[in-house]
Amino acid sequence: MTERTPVLEARNLQVTFTGRGSRGVARAVDGVQLALHRGEIVALVGESGCGKTTLARTLLGLERPSAGEVLVDGQPLSYSSRDLTAYRKRVQLVLQDPTGALNPRHSVYEAVAEGLRIHGSEVDEGVAVADALSRAGLRPPERFFLRYPHELSGGQRQRVVIAGALVLNPDVIVADEPVSSLDASVRGEILALLLRLREELGLSLLVVTHDLGLAWNIADRVAVMYLGRIVEEGPTEEILRSPRHPYTRALLSVVPEMEGMDEVVLTGEPPDSTRIPSGCRFHPRCPVVVSGEAERLGIVEACRGTALPVLEVSAGHHVACHLPPDSN
Amino acid sequence: MTTTVPTPTPTPISASPKSIARARRKASRRAFAKQFARSRSGMLGLIVLIVFALLAIFAPLLFPATMLDVTKATGMPYEPPSLEFPLGTDVSGRSVLALVVWGARVSLVVGLAATVLSMAIGTSVGIVSGHYRGFLGGTLDRFTDWFLVIPFLPLAIVLATVLGASMLNIIIVIGVTSWPGTARLIRAQTLSVGARPYLERSRALGAGNVHQMVRHVLPNVMPLVLANTTLAVSISILSETTLSFLGLGDPTAVSWGSILEEAFASGAVSQGAWWYIVPPGLCVVLVVLSFNLMGRSVEEILDPRKGAT
Question: The complex's ipTM?
Answer without folding.
Answer: 0.83
